[in-house]
């Protein structure tokens, strides 16, 4: 097994692995912060730059002149304006910010793409993925490494079909991204819940009871005394996870647990950027309005923050 295939199988196999006795497994998918910087426009716009561009891309603008920053920002605006009506709405800004924040995911897919697109047609079929990932292992019913490749392949095929919106068993780059990172796509949330429940539901009754819930996070391994965090998780299950108090979590309760409705940072930032840049207060932005407030969206070598604050207050 080469390194790439080993890492891929390892990532799939982690769903079946148990935590160390005192190590808490976290299955909850929280919406990440847009930046690790403080959001305080009275001091600087660094948070907004990271949010709008992604932290790595934001650094590249800091090396540009104001003129270069404005030119590149104008090109970005053309991409954000999805319906090409000449305006950037709050919704379009939100979509752009979410995309910028997931650049590491798209980079990960890009790095793997050529390995699976065997005929180089710009698409990845299920057959291509299956043959590359499992082709050499399915003939061995009892592999030495202990992986159950057939079971893993069944799960992969089910997830691939869900990611494949048009049902042709051929994935575009966006569909393949949804396949590899289903937690990032709304239409894939059901498969995330289903796979999680299958991992934890040891008696296969379609529910997660208290002991299965705890057993997924903690193994007694001969220890009589549970850590305090395990006791807390027992209380969490009874008080918050099991909403209908029937002693187990069903699909909806599991979904509420692992895919919580967190604060939407991208939506809040999009609203903030529109509010600060919308000179005529029509609820949407022109390219001119955005470029005029370029210092809010992007950085540059010579941005005078004092001058920027004056213009900031004028609006």
UniProtKB/TrEMBL annotation:
Instruction: Give the similarity note.
Output: Belongs to the CREC family.
Would you tell me the protein name for this molecule? Calumenin
Q: Which organism is it from?
A: Erinaceus europaeus (Western European hedgehog)
Q: Which residues form the signal peptide?
A: 1-19
Instruction: State if S-adenosyl-L-methionine is listed as a keyword.
Output: no
What the entry lists under SMART domains is as follows: EFh
Q: Name one GO cellular component term.
A: Golgi apparatus
- Name where it's found: Endoplasmic reticulum membrane; Golgi apparatus; Melanosome; Sarcoplasmic reticulum lumen
- Pfam families xref list: EF-hand_5 (PF13202), EF-hand_7 (PF13499), EF-hand_8 (PF13833)
Output the superkingdom of the source species. Eukaryota
SUPFAM superfamilies for this protein: EF-hand (SSF47473)
What InterPro entries does the record tag this protein with?
Answer: EF-hand-dom_pair, EF_Hand_1_Ca_BS, EF_hand_dom
UniProt KW keywords:
Calcium, Endoplasmic reticulum, Golgi apparatus, Membrane, Metal-binding, Repeat, Sarcoplasmic reticulum, Secreted, Signal
Which CDD domains does this one have? Answer: EFh_CREC_Calumenin
Q: Where is the EF-hand domain?
A: 68-103, 104-139, 151-186, 188-223, 265-300
Molecular functions per Gene Ontology: calcium ion binding
- Gene3D superfamilies linked: EF-hand
């Amino acid at each position: 097994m080469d390194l790439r295939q080993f890492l891929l199988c390892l990532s799939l196999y982690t769903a079946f692995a148990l935590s160390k006795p005192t190590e808490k497994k976290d299955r909850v998918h929280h919406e990440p912060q847009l930046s690790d910087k403080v959001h305080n426009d009275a001091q600087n716009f660094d948070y907004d730059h990271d949010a709008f561009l992604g932290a790595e891309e934001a650094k590249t603008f800091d090396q540009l002149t104001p003129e270069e920053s404005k030119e590149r920002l104008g090109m970005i605006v053309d991409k954000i304006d999805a319906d090409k009506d000449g305006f950037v709405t709050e919704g379009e800004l939100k979509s752009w910010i979410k995309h910028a924040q997931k650049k590491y995911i798209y980079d990960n897919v890009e790095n793997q793409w050529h390995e699976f697109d065997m005929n180089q047609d710009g698409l990845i079929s299920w057959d291509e993925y299956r043959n590359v990932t499992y082709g050499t292992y399915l003939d061995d019913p009892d592999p030495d490494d202990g992986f159950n490749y057939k079971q893993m392949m069944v799960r992969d095929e089910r997830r691939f079909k869900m990611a494949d919106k048009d049902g042709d068993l051929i994935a575009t780059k966006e569909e393949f991204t949804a396949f590899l990172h289903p937690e990032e796509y709304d239409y894939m949330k059901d498969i995330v819940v289903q796979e999680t429940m299958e991992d934890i539901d040891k008696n296969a009754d379609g529910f997660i009871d208290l002991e299965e819930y705890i057993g997924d996070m903690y193994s007694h391994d001969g220890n009589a005394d549970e850590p305090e965090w395990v006791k807390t998780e027992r209380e969490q299950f009874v008080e918050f996870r099991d909403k209908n108090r029937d002693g187990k979590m069903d699909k909806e309760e599991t979904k509420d647990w692992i895919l919580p409705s967190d604060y939407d940072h991208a939506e809040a930032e999009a609203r903030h950027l529109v509010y600060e840049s919308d000179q005529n207060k029509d609820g949407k932005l022109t390219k001119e309005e955005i470029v005029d407030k370029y210092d809010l969206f992007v950085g540059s070598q010579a941005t005078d923050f004092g001058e920027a604050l004056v213009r900031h207050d004028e609006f």
